[in-house]
Every structure is written in structure tokens, then in C-alpha cells.
Design a protein that fits this description.
By secondary structure, the protein is mostly helical. The chain has helices at residues 2-22, 35-53, 58-77, 81-84, 89-106, 113-131. The termini are far apart.
Amino acid sequence: MNNILKRTLLPSLMAASLAGVTLVPAKPAAADDQVLRDAGIGAVTNVVTGAVRGRGSVLDNAVKGGVTGAAVNGANGLRNTRNRRNRSVVQDVGVGAGASAVTGVITGDRKDTLGNAVDGAAVGAAIHLLTNGK
């Protein structure tokens, strides 16, 4: 009888505790509620800079720009609420350049790392110009 209870009760107890732990709502790590806006700005900006430079496809540039915009948003999300409105242009451009260079390497665009960094810097600058003080 003891083994029967263990075999029926333990799995359901473990499943209930696992579901309770995983369904607990958690706060996002750093990104704020404007992450989609910044990802959109990044995607559009990177598509334009990619077209001007004649590098990459529209889809690849949009993906790199979206990731870069989300990274810039995440870097500003690490600040407290008051300082999020006073964004640093150096931080936005630096995070954009770094994120775009790394994203380019991950997506297989290893030939133009410097160009990807320039595109990311443009994304960071565009996000800074369009969202500073908002």
C-alpha cells in the first residue's frame, strides 16, 4: 500500500509544485514596455542603412536592426525610472554598435563586422533622437 501511494501521489505532487513555480509571474529583466517601439525603429533604420550601403537583404537587416533596438532598450531598462528619460547618446550608440556587430556574427555575416557596427550605431542614434525624453 505504501508503494502504491508513493507511485500515485508523488508524481502529481511534483507536477503541481513544478506548475506553481513556472506559472508565477516574473518581472522582465531589463526591457521596458517600449521594447517593441525600439525594435521597430531599429529594424527600419537598419533596413535603410543597409540599402544605402548596399549590404545584406532587407530581411537580414530588419532582423539585425530589431535585435539591436531591443538591446538598446534593454540597456536603458537597467536604469531607474527617472534616468530612463535622460538617455545617454554615447550609451545608445555604443550598445547599438556592439549588439549589431555581435548579431551579424551570429547570423553569419562575418565579412562586414565593421559595417554592422556602423549600422548598429546608426540604430542607437536614431532611437536616441526619437525617444529621448519620452
